[in-house]
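User: Sequence recovery, please. Input:
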């Protein structure tokens, strides 16, 4: 636990901003990075203490839980007012957008690990279950990423017509199915397997390959292809 020492009382080389400039951003801990965003603490608590108080509230779920904090939740923390709330939320959203920014170079999916690397930043922080598809051309290059539905995955909310329409409209040769489990456990449910098989059959009729189904949960994933479930 960081002692309640005011930043101004620290040696200059140990102050977060000065430390970042001198040694690089990688040299800072999470609380120090947050302290730079928050800029100041209160009369009773240093900015480092306020930052650590924020982190400690969500320590069981990890740093990534900050991505889903609302303005109301942040403002409940003593020492974080409207201006600091806006700064933290803006920084988090910039980080999210950077992670999802498509590369100018065409992304090629050569197997489940490549698919997971592409899909996880787009779904891992979602608090609702979302079903998406990755559309590929004949060279396995990514054409686009589309959210098809929001809600518990079952045949009633994921219709083959919607999935195949996206593929046809984008001239896709193959599709990777993807969805997230907000619970953190990527293990497929019976509905996950049934829906996948239904879409595989539809793809066979339309001449569009369903290459894999990636389920994202927490920091892990499950590939139907790796698990032998693509049949």
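Assistant: Recovered sequence (231 residues):
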């Amino acid at each position: 636990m960081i002692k309640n020492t005011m930043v101004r009382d620290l040696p200059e080389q140990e102050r977060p901003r000065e430390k970042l400039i001198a040694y690089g951003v990688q040299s800072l801990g999470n609380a120090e990075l947050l302290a730079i965003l928050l800029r100041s603490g209160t009369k009773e608590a240093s900015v480092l203490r306020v930052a650590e108080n924020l982190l400690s509230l969500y320590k069981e779920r990890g740093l990534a839980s900050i991505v889903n904090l609302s303005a109301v939740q942040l403002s409940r923390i003593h020492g974080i007012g409207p201006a600091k709330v806006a700064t933290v939320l803006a920084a988090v959203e910039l980080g999210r957008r950077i992670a999802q920014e498509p590369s100018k170079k065409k992304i090629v999916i050569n197997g489940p690990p490549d698919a997971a690397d592409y899909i996880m930043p787009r779904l891992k922080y979602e608090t609702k279950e979302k079903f998406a598809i990755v559309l590929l051309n004949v060279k396995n290059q990514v054409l686009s990423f589309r959210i098809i539905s929001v809600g518990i995955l079952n045949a009633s909310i994921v219709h083959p017509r919607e999935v195949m329409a996206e593929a046809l409209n984008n001239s896709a040769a193959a599709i990777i199915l993807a969805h997230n489990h907000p619970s953190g456990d990527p293990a497929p449910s019976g509905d996950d397997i049934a829906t996948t098989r239904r879409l595989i059959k539809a793809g066979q009729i339309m001449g569009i390959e369903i290459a894999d189904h990636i389920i994202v949960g927490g920091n892990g994933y499950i590939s139907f292809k790796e698990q032998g479930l693509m049949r």
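The beta strands are 130-136, 142-150, 174-180, 209-217, 220-223.
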